[in-house]
């Protein structure tokens, strides 16, 4: 090994010391970076989980939606369907709360409407987080069932224009209209049962009906539409 002079030896020691110091600093930074990066990643993941409320659709059909979410979460279901011409269709929305396990089935009346696709959108809130999930369902075609018919009585105002009604409405007949509508509300269910010989059932409802019976303040014959 070649001998070194004092000056060269001093320079070499300084170089070795600086190199070792640089390697030590590099090692410290290299070892610390993953820890800091991992911590920030964990915090971001925890924050993301805290902001997202889990809502999973378990079943979607016309008349009901079943979901799984956070226990006791409050939920609102919006219903969109083609409501047709002769009825109001189902309610536009219903509300409910999940049980202790997070299960919830939101049910609503499902009167006959034109066949096609309907859409559910459920929005849940646990007091800190909110989430909305859509789900489609199919509406099959089918005849009205006389074994369970839902009928709504509507008192038509004398100024209302109804399609197919050519009789001129008379405001002076409004009291008679109200009397007839009230009478129908009390006897229609029994009369239907008697005429169907107990095989059919009719229920007078205030909304979500299969058929609307319009009572007008006018003279003439009843109008039947199919």
Explain what the structure shows.
The protein has two helices and ten strands, in the order H-E-E-E-E-E-E-E-E-H-E-E. It is an alpha+beta fold and 226 residues long. The longest helix has 46 residues, at 6-51.
The end-to-end distance, rounded to whole angstroms, is: 113 Å
Given helix and strand content, the structural type is alpha+beta
Provide the residue-averaged pLDDT: 79
Number of distinct helices: 2
Rg, nearest Å: 36 Å
Q: State the strand order across the main sheet.
A: 4-3-6-7
For the report, how would you describe the main beta sheet?
4 strands, antiparallel
**Which H/E pattern describes the elements?**
HEEEEEEEEHEE
Fraction of residues in H or I helices: 25-40%
What's the layout of helices and strands?
Blueprint: H1 6-51, E1 56-61, E2 64-68, E3 74-80, E4 93-97, E5 103-107, E6 116-125, E7 130-139, E8 149-155, H2 174-195, E9 202-204, E10 211-215
Parallel strand pairs: 8-9, 8-10
Antiparallel strand pairs: 1-2, 2-5, 3-4, 3-6, 6-7
Summarize the structure.
This protein is α+β, with helices and mostly antiparallel strands and 226 residues long.
Quickly list its features.
elongated; alpha+beta; 2 helices; single chain; 226 residues; 28% strand
């Amino acid at each position: 090994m070649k001998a070194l002079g004092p000056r060269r030896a001093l320079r070499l020691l300084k170089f070795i010391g600086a190199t070792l110091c640089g390697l030590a600093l590099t090692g410290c930074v290299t070892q610390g970076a993953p820890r800091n990066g991992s911590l920030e990643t964990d915090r971001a993941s925890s924050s993301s989980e805290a902001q997202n409320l889990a809502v999973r659709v378990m079943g979607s059909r016309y008349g009901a939606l079943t979901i799984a979410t956070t226990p006791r979460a409050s939920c609102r279901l919006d219903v969109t369907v083609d409501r047709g011409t002769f009825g109001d269709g189902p309610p536009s929305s219903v509300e409910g709360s999940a049980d202790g396990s997070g299960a919830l089935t939101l049910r609503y009346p499902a009167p006959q409407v034109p066949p096609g696709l309907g859409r559910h959108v459920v929005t849940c809130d646990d007091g800190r987080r909110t989430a909305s999930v859509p789900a489609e369902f199919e509406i099959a075609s089918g005849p009205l069932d006389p074994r369970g018919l839902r009928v709504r009585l509507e008192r038509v105002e004398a100024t209302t224009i109804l399609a197919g009604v050519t009789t001129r409405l008379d405001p002076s007949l409004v009291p008679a209209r109200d009397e007839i509508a009230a009478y129908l509300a009390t006897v229609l269910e029994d009369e239907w049962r008697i005429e169907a010989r107990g095989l059919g059932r009719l229920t007078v409802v205030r909304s979500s009906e299969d058929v609307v019976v319009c009572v007008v303040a006018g003279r003439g014959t009843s109008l039947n539409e199919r």
